[in-house]
Amino acid sequence: MTNIMHILGFQQGxxxxxxxxxxxxxxxxxxxxxxxxxxxxxxxxxxxxxxxxVPAWLAHVYGTVFRGVPDLLTIYLLYYGGSIALTQxxxxxxxxxxxxxPTFATGVLAIGIISGAYQGEVYRGAYQAVDRGQFEACKxxxxxxxxxxRLVIVPxxxxxxxxxxxxxxxxxLKDSAxxxxxxxxxxxxxxxxxxxxxxxxxxxxxxxxxxYFVIAVVTASVFRFSEARAWRGMVHA
Amino acid sequence: xxxxxxFLEIIPVLLAGLPLTLLLTTASMVIxxxxxxxxALAQQGxxxxxxxxxxxxxxxxxxxxxxxxIFLIYYGLGQFRPSLQAIGIWWLFREPYWCxxxxxxxxxxxxxxxxxxGAIKAVPRGLTEAATxxxxxxxxxLRLIVLPLALRNAIPNYTNEIILMVKGTSLASIITLMExxxxxxxxxSQTYRAVEVFVAAGAIxxxxxxxxxxxxxxxxxxxxxxRVRA
Lengths: 237, 230
Description:
The complex is a heterodimer.
Chain A: H1 2-8, H2 16-49, H3 53-68, H4 71-92, H5 103-129, H6 132-140, H7 145-175, H8 187-198, H9 201-230
Chain B: H1 4-15, H2 18-42, H3 48-63, H4 66-76, H5 81-86, H6 90-94, H7 96-121, H8 125-133, H9 138-168, H10 180-191, H11 194-223
């Protein structure tokens, strides 16, 4: 027991501070990836809902591919694909080594692309759940398309989207552990490093699991709070 | 521009990983399903001492990354080799193959038990009351009324679970198992052609998903013929 406290402690030679710092990297990675995913997802939803064929088809392919292919494969595509392109550009300028992409940015991009595919489905469903009468009311009031989206549709759409977004967020948080494979020192990678150097893998992976669990539980309450807020003023049936 | 010869070269190489992907998926889904059923049924009573540990298990396995679970079982439990050898289950935790199946099965048991719990709850109360009124025992009601209806209703959710499991098996490549994603990563670092390898491996996964979805939709249609409208 004293051994565990010593390894995970905050004193000299303890890993507590490193694990907490890595947790904040995980959180930053997940939040930024989720935000990028929101932008991509909103675009994809707009594409899916578009009456024109090409955007609808492109959005459909995007959603199908990135929800159907293992996330690890997507991460390899972005990291190696990007690095290979960068290395080739590097050789043009006389560099002769492998140029790796910055891992944090690649991680955000990967999580953004993957979660965007899931968020697109959430937004599309939520848009369709908004009462038709609201669109007609916007027209009757003479609101422009942008005004009706911003003032009327999106606030109501969020009510239906929040539970789904909460699920996607949990997915994002867990997916962020996969970014460790490209060498970014987030929580998972930090646990691996600690496990390797102390030869105590069990303690480190339990600690990592506990930290992920705490982040998941705490952030879930943010979604619950937002949901309660989004529904304020509505009488529950 | 598109190098078909390259695709023809890598597709058979990638397909060599398909049996392992299928094996991991099937083994983990089957073991996970039976564990999930046990967990869901155990929660039907209202004994807190039974329900509470199950809820904790489900929350932990759903709230932590699969990769952490795999590492915990493969590397973490390896630390307890002498004790595991003493009770004779070291063979299970020595092989990455078994570790992957244990981790994926436990993960699936957690997700699946929630699906089945919901599906059992959704069986109309009137049906079980009718069964009791007909003098059927609890076990008989479960076997003839509740489970057939619950399992049939769980099919759409289970379809999603199988797709997630197919994707989840890719993590086995991190503990050295060369399934499709593992082979793909090897190919990328050998050939430096990430996009082509991604397209080929992705196509295999999408075809697999499509086959699974079609098969389960067909099964659902067969089991609920009255719901199909022309």
